[in-house]
Amino acid sequence: MLPIKRALRPLAALLLAAAVATVPAATATASDAPTSGWNDYSCRPSTAHPRPVVLVHGTLGNSVDNWLSLAPYLEHRGYCVFSLDYGQLQGVPLFHGLAPIDKSAAQLSDFVDKVLAATGAGKADLVGHSQGGMMPRYYLKFLGGAAKVNALVGLAPDNHGATLSGLTNLLPYFPGAEDLISAATPGLADQIPGSAFLTKLNDGGDTVPGVHYTVIATKYDEVATPWRSQYLSGSDVHNVLLQDLCPLDLSEHVAIALLDRIAFHEVANALDPAHATATTCASVFS
């Protein structure tokens, strides 16, 4: 990268962050979590938005912190929004998504059943970040989720593994390292490219019939790398690169889910494609 481009990246990021801060619905605090529509089991989906939205956090995330901006964004647009904690290891508070991913998918299955029973909806839509965009595919493929889910939207999902900018490629040079990761944090081991979990997940195709898939990626991702590995193949897949929508968008792996209203606008389009509008740099103000 040229020095001038490297120097301009922080400036552009600052400008985008400032724009986000000027929009009332852009940010929220933990006190906003129990508002109507976010984990409010009395919420009933509207005719305009007939399906509840279940937010699935990423590795080391949780049901609140991961969604302090996106949950209110969707709630403000009339959705019933729910989020869960999954994959917690014994003795590890706050940080989730570390348990075996097939077990986490079973927790998601139970949570979706709970949401559908409470709201009376026939199907839900899922929006997940990182592992939370990939893990639901196991639920859809192996746990009967396809009959209960209309759409899966992944924000920087590690659908074919996370190399951490190539760091996982060094594991073979450290004997025992992979075994240690598997024993201590199996959810991380499951995300290493070539793992038994990912091999099973992607065998026979990336998608299942009847579910609409959207992947929203950023070329500045430093975790789910290479970023093109996030993309899915299938007949009902929409793969999106944020920088094709707004070249000024410098969000990386974490920011895409925490504060990027350009990504949020594309999430809204995926949830309601019949009323989709063009996503551009100006979507930060939408």
TrEMBL record:
InterPro entries per the UniProt record, alphabetical: AB_hydrolase_fold, Lipase_EstA/Esterase_EstB
Keyword entries, A-Z: Signal
Keyword Signal: yes
Signal peptide: 1-25
PANTHER family found in the cross-reference section: FASTING INDUCED LIPASE (PTHR32015), LIPASE (PTHR32015:SF1)
Name listed for the protein in its UniProt record: Esterase/lipase family protein
Organism: Streptomyces anandii
